[in-house]
Amino acid sequence: MIRKQRPLPAILLLAVAAMHAQAPEPQQRITARVELVNVDVTVTDERGDFVRGLKPENFRIFDEGVEQRISYFAPVEAPAVVLVLVETGPAVYLIHRQHLTSAYTLLEGLAADDQVALASYDQAPRLLLPFSEDKRTVTQALAGLRYNLGAAELRLFDAMSTALEWLAPIPGKKTLVLLSTGLDTSGGWDALEKKLRSSDVSIYAVALGGELRDYRGETESPLPLGTTPLSFDEATRKLTAMAEMTGGRAWFPRRSEELEGIYRELAAQLRHRYSLGFEPLVRDARYHRIHVQLVDDRGRVLGPWYDDLPDATGQHQAVKRPAKRDRIRYRLFFRRGYLAPQP
């Protein structure tokens, strides 16, 4: 997301001009335009806990491989705006009791002032509850979800595009929590990918149907009609891509017992982020790749390591990875690019 600084107030400009002028001059209005690329970063340790107390010098940010000066920095622990989008197709119906029971853990882990809305999709998306701080109502609505048990289409990518449109005009720190198998029959990935690149919504995906994803038998399949193990492999790639592009995260539990811990970790991450800002490298209206690194107080890279990251001269850096025993395991979650402003 790119923020623009407002013009300086005219009364302030006149006061400054009066201090330096030797003689009266015609009033002039000066407009200062500063554009910043905002990158929210979540840093967790090896236990999945949010890392607090980091400073601007603990981060390096790269635009197309060129390191940028961080001109804005703030640790952000602000109320979250969360849209929960749930697949209600036949595959999820087989396991809905386990995953919905665990999803209550997500709602319980949210803060009192977090705003939550609920939507579902199969052939089309449906907004079931508008944004509210009332988590109890969302819990009741989850329990009452209806599932399409026929051989219906699953238009996940179309539903995601519509959900991004719902979230676009809402201010604040926006998150889409997707509870889905990742299966899609719409073929609308290209349009969705374009929207994701220009959106300021972080996507956290919890893949459902872990037991079904592992099915490789040759006898009668428990999978929905038209579903194959290969399509689940593609679904995994797309869920991962959606999360990585937007600075979120994707989980792929294999057992229902894992879900409660995942939702608890997800709730903890929704509120805690570092906000970084830098002035865009060029104004070319093109998509630019972003990389962020975490370093210690002596400038040593703690992760992640980029073997192919070019420096300001275009040459590839020789980043020496520390010995495995010396590594401090941190994970960074941030959006992978932005659309540069118009020339």
Specify the CATH homologous superfamily of the domain at 80-272. von Willebrand factor, type A domain
Assembly form of the protein: single chain
Percent of residues in beta strands: 25-35%
Total E-strand runs: 16
The number of helical runs is 9
Structure description:
The protein has 9 helices and 16 strands. The chain is α+β, with helices and mostly antiparallel strands and 343 residues long. It has a domain at 80-272: Rossmann fold (3-Layer(aba) Sandwich). The strands form 3 sheets. A 6-stranded mixed beta sheet has the order 8-7-6-9-10-11, sandwiched between helices. Strands 1, 2, 5, 12 and 15 form a 5-stranded antiparallel beta sheet that branches. Strands 3, 4, 13, 14 and 16 form a 5-stranded antiparallel beta sheet that branches. The radius of gyration is 23 Å and the shape is globular. The two termini are 17 Å apart. The model is unreliable at 2-26, 28-32, 216-229 and 312-316 (pLDDT under 50).
